[in-house]
């Protein structure tokens, strides 16, 4: 069964709706330029109200050490997601499970990257748009993903209820990650789209 992560959660109703719809993980963006950025206090309130067995993921982009220490000191995040230029050592230094996001651009060697980030729990693949570390809403060519990668793959990049079934059928990723594809506005989720997205994933998962 392909897992589902709903990213860019900024409020409790959206978090609870995603959990009720069957989301396996919720993503919280700690990157100020993002319109989906959530502050620590708001995230703490949301995390305290979540039901069990929902993985909480903190997303960071080239974050300062002091800021990461502040977030991790106050929030019981289950998994970290690094979307910047963080090295393998920088990702693993926090002693928490992490995944590394890679933007699919010409010349990227995914086999090599999986070896480089050997301590990661998985690799997230997103579309490359210059100057944007993620949340672009763009789809990349899924045919560029080589088969048999040694790390679990989280597929992101422009997914929505209309194309996620095809994505899962073709790529067979460990998980899919969506943010803008299930939004009513930036940072505000559409609960019907969340349900449709998860239904689309489950309908074609093995």
Helix and strand arrangement:
Blueprint: E1 3-6, H1 12-21, E2 25-29, H2 40-49, E3 55-60, H3 65-74, E4 79-82, H4 88-92, E5 98-104, H5 110-116, E6 122-127, E7 153-155, H6 164-171, E8 175-178, E9 183-185, E10 188-189, H7 191-204
Parallel strand pairs: 1-2, 1-8, 2-3, 3-4, 4-5, 5-6, 6-7, 7-8
Antiparallel strand pairs: 9-10
Summarize the structure in words:
The structure is a single chain. With 206 residues, the protein is α/β, with parallel strands linked by helices. It has one domain (3-204): Aldolase class I (TIM Barrel, Alpha-Beta Barrel), CATH 3.20.20.70. The protein is 31% helix and 21% strand. It is built from seven helices and ten strands. The protein has helices at residues 12-21, 40-49, 65-74, 88-92, 110-116, 164-171, 191-204; strands spanning 3-6, 25-29, 55-60, 79-82, 98-104, 122-127, 153-155, 175-178, 183-185, 188-189. An eight-stranded parallel β-barrel has the order 1-2-3-4-5-6-7-8. A two-stranded antiparallel sheet has the order 9-10. Helix 3 links the parallel strand 3 and strand 4 (79-82). Helix 1 (12-21) runs parallel beside helix 7 (191-204).
């Amino acid at each position: 069964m392909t897992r589902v992560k709903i990213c860019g959660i900024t409020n409790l109703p959206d978090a609870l709706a995603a959990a009720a719809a069957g989301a396996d993980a919720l993503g919280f963006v700690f990157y100020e330029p993002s319109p989906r950025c959530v502050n620590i206090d708001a995230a703490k309130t949301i995390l305290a109200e979540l039901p069990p067995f929902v993985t909480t993921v903190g997303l960071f982009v080239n974050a300062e050490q002091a800021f990461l220490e502040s977030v991790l000191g106050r929030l019981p995040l289950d998994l970290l997601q690094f979307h910047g230029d963080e090295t393998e050592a920088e990702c693993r230094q926090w002693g928490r499970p992490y995944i590394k996001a890679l933007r699919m651009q010409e010349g990227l060697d995914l086999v090599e990257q999986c070896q480089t980030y050997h301590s990661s729990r998985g690799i997230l693949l997103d579309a490359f748009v210059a100057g944007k570390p993620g949340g672009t809403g763009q789809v990349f060519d899924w045919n560029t993903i080589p088969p048999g990668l040694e790390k679990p793959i989280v597929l992101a990049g422009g997914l929505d209820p209309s194309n996620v079934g095809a994505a899962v059928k073709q790529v067979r990723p460990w998980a899919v990650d969506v943010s803008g594809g299930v939004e009513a506005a930036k940072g505000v989720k559409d609960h019907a789209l969340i349900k449709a997205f998860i239904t689309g994933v489950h309908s074609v998962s093995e």
